[in-house]
Amino acid sequence: MATTAASWTEQVSRARLHVVTGKGGTGKTTVAAALALALATGGRRVLLIEVEGRQGIAQLFDTQPLPYAEKRIASAPGGGEVRALHVDVEAALLEYFAMFYNLGFAGRTLRRMGAIEFATTLAPGLRDVLLTGKVKETVGRTDSRGRHEYDAIVLDAPPTGRIVRFLDVTKAMADLAKVGPIKGQSDGVVRLLHSQDTAVHLVTLLEEMPVRETIEAVAELSAADLRPGAVIVNRVRPPRLPARSVTPAAGGRVDASRVRAGLTSAGLDLAPEDIEGLVGETVEHAIRVVAEQSAREQLTEIDLPAVELPDIAEGIDTAALYELAEILVDQGVR
Amino acid sequence: MSALDVDSLIDDPDIHVIVCCGSGGVGKTTTAAAIAVRAAERGRKTVVLTIDPARRLAQALGLRELGNTPKEVEVEGFEPAGQLAAMMLDMRRTFDDMVLAHAGQARAQEVLANPFYKTISSSFSGTQEYMAMEKLGQLAGEGRWDLIVVDTPPSRSALDFLDAPQRMSSALDGRMIRLLSGPARTGGWGVRKVVGAGIMLFAKAVSTIVGGQLLADASAFVQAFDSMFGGFKQRARKTYELLRSGGTAFLVVATPESDALREASYFVERLASEEMPLSGLVINRTHPVLTKLPAARAIAAADNLERTGDAPLATAVLRLHADRVAVHDRERRLLARFTKAHPSVSVVSVPAMPSDVHDLVGLRSIGERLTGS
Asked: Does residue B101 fall inside a structural domain?
């Protein structure tokens, strides 16, 4: 299925933290969920985290809005398990305060006063530092035997327009005090995000603007010394038309009589306006195929592993997620 | 469900503001620009306020010219019966202008130079929405245009346009900043009793994390800002009232995708509760089928043809048609879910354009699809 570069590489499979970004509308949350299921296949335990307060995971798995807690959300083939965590920034800040300042009891009052929301808006970097801090905590967490609690973490991250700013903890820390526990923690986050333990995957569609944003984001990530992982091309539709028919059709040239002859031989005797309609659809389809080819060519500029996911006509439900996960596994995702 | 008549909306002399809302990525800017072009060609003196136009479209409409004021759109072949001016919102400049307008010269300079101001005027959540409202208020107040078409910021939540300004107002209210930067200063022990030990500890904790300098800047900002804040809030309220008036029409824009329609749904409900005038829903990028052939028949015929392999073109055409029917069916189901929940909302579907719209010709085409012409 994948036609560009190599598929999921050895290097990417060694990452423990898989950050999933992409232009809005490319299906980032769906892909993150499918990736989590794929990585959990074969008996592993994966945590799927969302940080933008959208409850996208709950919607995808058709469950109640998630609390701020790690909750089992799906089982993966081979005895694997996916847990989900919806990070509530305010709750994360309170948790932080409880840990370092013993502030548990005043939480509710503070929330009511809007004090928490205020603190996180006062210093925009504080939100991001807290969120990435929480992510790091889950990546590094070990059980009593010293084994990692999770085999992998998948982060449904902010879109490409904001991803580098989100991951650039050092810059976020510039607003904040240079001492104290949060500084210590953020040093660890910086180390994690810039290490081989982290891969940033980019979800795209075969369309001009998402591809352009993907290319720009890869450059930005590399410049910030962050590690792009794979490009995940989503919602791929089968080209259908024979290769040599694409360009003429895109130019409006479809041999209607040849189409009619073919249909007749299949026992379909359609009215002229229906043939015209089919031709119209074919032309539009061909124009899109040409655009997709151009998008694919542009993507080859980025020398990253690539995997592809098909468009699922009926829409995404839980069954479709498992289907997508299987397709990822087939392309070497592990 | 009735069909939304966009031309009637455009031609209505009592409508002076059309606001295009919806979550990001649904084509709001294109819709707003297309409506503005059509309105101008139908004789209205129109201005379109865009927020985040795509590069090529911005170039085509001359939106990238420096300046935070509308410029007449001058494009070869465009000779509207009315007029069209267009602009792209410069968030920071709009904020600067507000500060200058509402504070004395000395105070204004203090505010503009404050590092905390620099942060909030560019990255505070809500600033873009707030400034879009402010700019709308300015344009409406100038009385130079007959129709203002407003694009809204590309936030994930459609409701941000209505909510973010209020959030920002509350945040800049000063109470919180004062509390966090110097609870002792605001009254010492007396305050401590009222405010509570927990809050004090919180304030101390926050100031430790956030750092003394930031709080000092924020505190200085608030003190300087206080004098103009009344005007600030008042302006926001005035613009909000404009949005609720009879001369305003809201259009909710979406695509036939669950997320976009869900956001549209929230927005429709919110408008109803605020008694704000919703004209209807615009669904962009739909894929109507162009022929009545059912998918099952098409697939069966394609399978048939594939066996002999004699008619590759016809086979391909049948399969791509079946694909399209599946997409159309999905879109119809999603729309039906929306209209069942909101039966009184008028809807118009805008079929997907073969390629991205990035010039006047494309905008005119969208206008035609919007109005079924």
From this structure: yes
The model carries a pTM of 0.90
Question: Which tokens sit at B172?
Answer: 């800049």
Is the CB of B196 less than 8 angstroms away from the CB of A106? yes
A245 touches chain B (CB under 8 A): yes
A278 to chain B: which residues are within 8 Å by CB?
A: 290-291, 293, 317, 321
**Pair B270, B319 in one domain:** no
A255 touches chain B (CB under 8 A): yes
Compare all CA atoms of chain B with the CA of A257 and give the residue at the minimum distance. Answer: B314
CA distance A270 to A232: 40
List of chain A residues whose C-beta atoms are within 8 Å of the C-beta of residue B166: none
Indicate if B303 and B280 belong to the same structural domain.
no
Predicted confidence (pLDDT) per residue in A47-80, tens digit: 999 999 889 999 999 999 999 999 999 999 999 9
The two tokens of residue A170 are: 């050092």
d(CA B54, CA B356): 10
Lowest mean pLDDT among A21-35, B66-80, B84-98, B192-206: B192-206
Interchain proximity B177–A122, CB inside 8 Å: yes
| pLDDT (average), residues A11-38 | 95
What residue in B sits closest to A30 (Cα-Cα)? Answer: B259
Q: Same domain for B363 and B322?
A: no
Element (H, E) at B346: none
- List CB contacts (< 8 A) between B290 and chain A: 276-278, 280-281
Percent of chain B residues past pLDDT 70, beyond the cut? 88
Let me know whether B241 and B325 are in one domain: no
Q: How far apart (Å, rounded) are the C-alpha atoms in residues B261 and B339?
A: 10
pLDDT tens digits, one per residue of B110-144: 889 988 888 778 766 678 888 898 899 999 999 99
Give the CA dihedral B242, B243, B246, B250, nearest 10 degrees. 150
Chain A, 63 to 82: residues with Cβ < 8 Å from chain B are none
Number of folded domains in chain B? 2
Over residues B341-358, the pLDDT tens digits come to 999 999 999 999 988 898
> What's the whole-number mean pLDDT along residues B184-209?
59
Domain range for B320 is 295-329
Residue A292 structure tokens: 């997709």
Cβ within 8 Å, pair B292-A209: no
- What is the Cα–Cα distance from B323 to B330, expressed in whole angstroms? 11
- B266 part of a folded domain: yes
Flag whether residue B154 sits within 8 Å of chain A, measured between CB atoms: yes
